[in-house]
Amino acid sequence: MYVRYPLSLRQVEDLLHERGIDVSYETIRAWWNRFGPMFAAEIRKKRIISRRECTQWKWHLDEVFVRVNGETHYLWRAVDHEGEFLEAFVTKKRDRKAALKFLKKAMKRFGSPVEVVTDRLRSYRAAMKVIGNGSRQVTGRWLNNRCENSHQPFRRRERAMAKFKSFATLQKFASIHSSIQNHFNLERHLLDRKTFKLNRSIALSEWRQLLA
């Protein structure tokens, strides 16, 4: 509940209390810190195997500013042409070195894309020249809306959490949130109601098996 929805720890505590479960919000914090990475890793492993060829078609890359204790950090995000989160990576700078590290990490997991859509940040072009796929970069107005829109769920969570307190917490939560968001992202706007309900039931069943 805490990772899936834009809820604070205290709100989750109240919701559990209504269901007869009396735990402290600090207990919930300990739970997501301990089990969140495990669940995210399991989801990521299964989706990488099933979607590896599909994710190599087109990537959308973008970065957003995130404040951590008053200091600006950058959350880099890669999504494929269907809006699937591929990688979330946090750095203190957004220069060529940071972009290169981000791209290498994503490519190590998902392979090399056929086409990469980015904004006009020069760090992307410099990093892709080092990798050798500079000719695959595409830039243009509105072309990268898919990745820019993918930041919205994270921004809602950021407001609910009243910002992040450390660099490590930001990186950890961004990675966990992206994986769980993928699992429950059913693209309901593309499906009829019957198919959506079926996919939702399957996703929930798989989630319960994972938790068990």
Would you summarize the structure shown here?
This protein has helices spanning 9-18, 25-55, 96-110, 122-131, 145-150, 152-160, 167-184, 193-211, and strands at residues 58-68, 71-80, 85-91, 115-118, 137-139.
Give an overview in words.
Helix 1 crosses helix 2 (25-55) and helix 2 (25-55) crosses helix 7. The chain has helices spanning 9-18, 25-55, 96-110, 122-131, 145-150, 152-160, 167-184, 193-211, and strands spanning 58-68, 71-80, 85-91, 115-118, 137-139. It has a 5-stranded mixed sheet with strand order 3-2-1-4-5, with helices on both faces. Strand 4 (115-118), helix 4 and strand 5 form a beta-alpha-beta unit. The chain is 56% helix and 17% strand. With 212 residues, the protein is an alpha/beta fold. It has one domain (9-211): Ribonuclease H-like superfamily/Ribonuclease H (Nucleotidyltransferase, domain 5, 2-Layer Sandwich). It contains 8 helices and 5 strands. The two termini are 16 Å apart.
Give a quick set of tags describing it:
single chain, 212 residues, alpha/beta, Nucleotidyltransferase, domain 5, five-stranded mixed beta sheet, 8 helices, 56% helix, 17% strand, globular
